[in-house]
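Hi R.,

Here are the chain sequences for the assembly we discussed:
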Amino acid sequence: MPTYYDTEIKSRLMLGTAQYPSPAILAQAFKRSGAGIATVSVRREAGGERAGQAFWDMIGDLGVHVLPNTAGCHSVREAVTTAQMARELFDTNWIKLEVIGHADTLQPDPFGLVEAAHILTDDGFQVFPYCTEDLVLCERLVEAGCRVLMPWGAPIGTGLGLNNIYGLRSLRAHFPDLPLVIDAGLGLPSQAAHAMELGYDAVLLNTAVAKAGDPVAMAQGFARALEAGRLGFEADPMEPRDMAAPSTPVLGRAFT
Amino acid sequence: MKITVNGTAQETAATTLDALLIELGYGEAKVATAVNEGFVPATLRPEQRLNEGDRVEIVAPRQGG
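And here is the predicted structure of the full complex:
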């Protein structure tokens, strides 16, 4: 099972906590999928609303590890300050670092990401960077102190799956011992299974589960796909070939 | 004194961040704070002076992906 910054997690599924039809369905999705990490955010609190406390209590009841994000931050300064506020609120050094570089694709700003990763690592954070599959960017993030990488499969919320299989495979080959997590872009369990077959350690989902017609069933479907894909990876798959090869013995066939 | 709290301009009599939070009803609430885009830890709120035009952020735990 994956280990992030010396903490082993008994699940390959990280699950977001946004956009569910209700808190009860969110809780059921976690329970039925066995997700080990919940991503959360910080947002402005309206006067006297105390929604933050209620949400915090609910997350505590899930009994999972919490990974705060810096979602929506477009600058290094915003991301660093958001991370610092999240650390105080959630009492964890873990931070899912997002520095968004483009409004249409919500893709990471690689330059800001590396700069922020340096600042936060120096400040004692354990950074989970939301990045692309660009190998050079990922090398820079590791140099900055990141001990896990979270490349996108596709843009956030699209459900397009794994858009660059070559790039993801290349990343796995270059970082054989680093935890690699597909973050964003998945829509179907089969895509999560594919990520596992590529040797990835985990996936992070939110929209795919929360916006499914039956989020609880979808969460469970993803959990099973992760298990199936990982077993396939560990079982050392056969090599594909172009020409057919009979599986039934040729020797002893009748009429020969 | 006029300051901005969570993007909304407002008047306050508070001279410290700690006093502002009490004035706004966040006394014991689970919130984190920033002034002019810089994080202010809870322990430093009593010492954080407020000045005309300061931009204060008050955030709390929320759903996220």
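Chain A is about 40% helix and 15% strand. The first strand of chain A starts at residue 3 and ends at 4.

Let me know if anything looks off.

Best,
T.
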